[in-house]
UniProtKB/TrEMBL annotation:
This is Glucose-6-phosphate 1-dehydrogenase. Keywords: Carbohydrate metabolism, Glucose metabolism, NADP, Oxidoreductase. The gene is zwf. Belongs to the glucose-6-phosphate dehydrogenase family. It comes from Albidovulum aquaemixtae. It holds the Pfam family G6PD_N.
């Protein structure tokens, strides 16, 4: 199967923080891949901007090094790289001063799509937005892309939204969450709403429970100082996991339209019941001494805070107060330094009301597993007869769709989430981006939970690096006579 590539209109994309880590790792290599795929038309320009002094040639060297570092040799060739680099420019600017802005105004054209990527700290968003308008750079249909964190709590999220709203309409603001750009996340909507098979079963009558797991093998590393003021709840649950939960639980929108989809997601967040204290488990990874295995620092060592009570792991059970999901628990789990790297949504269906084969056959539930990483795809486990004579013996088998296998060689090279989302910005499609009221509703649900455990003085449970998390997280499901899906190494 050959995927179709639909070019976008010519554009000027300004990347503020254009020499930063995100630009180097994701934005520039991703844009190169879109150029090679034929999606970026000639006449488009990518303009890096940061405080450091650099000229166009220097920025092209920077981008060339980034492409070489983050794309293997099979995904680049010297001629294509050279042609792509011809589209790159650089203008030094000072986000909080006046230096460089007149030069940037001369570079950005008014007769093409204008997009401005704020790959900088949120504290600079307002300064950038104000100067873009004061210097007449951003036109009435310009688009801005802002990275998380979208505030640290409800109050700061409202302040941030208000700051952006002073200069840009909500239809111009693209709050990016790279999880929503993953192929499998979008296929979740296709599976639900483009097939008659699943939607009639997608409710509390047929679904026993839902598990959402985002596990990482790395620790907080160089992000320790930032992470210690955030924690897993703010860093992952409030945004990534919340968005995945919404896509699973939402009602069918009246059409595949940005506001129609986001209206339904907002209803899910507002229907979330507060999680009880006993339904939340917080953990913090311990270090390794090096005996029999490589030495690893503990969370408190990585964060350089021996008395830290910030969680590097969280597991919780939540319920949605609506007709579709009444009584069906959703279990959320995410953490650092776990056994394996995996992002998975598991829809666990109920057992058949009556098994004609008897209990001794070890009947298992049907599970639809949606893998976001590392191997994007979907698996549906079903029961079949075990081959061979000797009676009716049942065994579980997977109906497995790996995108790399199902779509062939052309489909195996799936675009990175950032590639897809940046192209959606150029198209003006906000479906996979968060709206301001979504962000505020998520914080309104999250804030009281954080305030409650801080008031109680709760401390995270310790867990070994390379494990599945604290024992209390296992008990969260065991007491409901369920168990977590295995995190594989």
């Amino acid at each position: 199967m050959v995927s179709r590539v639909i070019p976008v209109d010519p554009f000027d994309l300004v990347v503020f923080g254009g020499t930063g880590d995100l630009a180097r790792r994701k934005i520039l290599p991703g844009l190169y891949r879109r150029y090679v795929a034929g999606q970026i038309p000639e006449g488009s320009r990518i303009i890096g901007s940061a405080r450091g002094d650099m000229d166009d040639a220097g920025y092209r060297d920077f981008a060339s090094e980034a492409i070489s570092e983050f794309l293997d040799g099979t995904k680049r060739d010297p001629q294509s790289v050279a042609r792509f680099l011809d589209h790159l420019y650089y203008v030094p600017t000072d986000a909080r001063g006046e230096n460089g802005w007149p030069d940037l105004a001369k570079r950005v054209r008014a007769d093409v799509v204008q997009a401005f990527y704020f790959s900088v700290a949120p504290s600079l968003f307002g300064d950038l937005a104000e100067r873009l308008h004061r210097h007449g750079i951003a036109g009435p249909e310009a688009r801005i892309v802002v990275e998380k964190p979208f505030g640290r709590d409800l109050e700061t999220a409202k302040e941030l939204n208000a700051t952006l709203a002073e200069h840009f309409d909500e239809s111009q603001i693209y709050r990016i969450d790279h999880y929503l750009g993953k192929e499998t996340v979008q296929n979740l909507m296709a599976v639900r709403f483009a097939n008659i098979l699943f939607e009639p079963l997608w409710n509390a009558r047929h679904v026993d429970h839902v598990q959402i797991t985002v596990a990482e093998t790395v620790g907080v590393g160089g992000r320790g100082a930032y992470y210690d003021t955030s924690g897993a709840m703010r860093d992952m649950v409030q945004n990534h996991l919340m968005q995945l939960l919404c896509l699973i639980a939402m009602e069918p929108p009246y059409r595949f339209d940005p506001d129609a989809v986001r209206d339904e997601k907002l209803k899910v967040i507002r229907a979330l019941l507060p999680a009880a204290p006993e339904d939340i488990v917080r953990g913090q990874y311990r270090g390794r001494t090096g005996k029999g295995s490589p030495k690893q620092a503990s969370y408190s060592e990585d964060a350089e805070n021996p008395s830290s009570t910030t969680e590097s792991f969280i597991a919780m059970k939540v319920h949605i107060a609506n007709w579709r999901w009444k009584g069906t628990p959703f279990y959320l789990r995410t953490g650092k330094r776990l056994r394996g790297r995996a992002s998975e949504i598991a829809i666990v269906f109920k057992e058949v009301p009556h098994s004609i084969f008897g209990d001794e056959e070890g009947w298992r539930e049907n599970v639809l597993s949606i893998r976001l990483q590392p191997d994007e795809g979907m698996t549906l486990s079903v029961m079949i007869k075990e081959p061979g004579p000797g009676g009716m013996r049942l065994t579980e088998v997977p109906l497995d769709m790996s995108f790399a296998e199902a779509l062939g060689e052309d489909g195996a090279d799936i675009p990175d989430a950032y590639e897809r989302l940046i192209m959606d910005v150029i198209r003006g499609n906000q479906t996979l981006f968060m709206r301001g009221d979504e962000v505020e509703a998520a914080w309104a649900w999250t804030d009281p939970l954080i305030a409650a455990w801080e008031a109680r003085g709760d401390k995270p449970k310790g867990y070994d690096a390379g494990s599945s998390g604290p024992e209390d997280a296992l008990m969260l499901l065991h007491r409901d006579e369920r168990r977590w899906r295995e995190i594989r190494e």
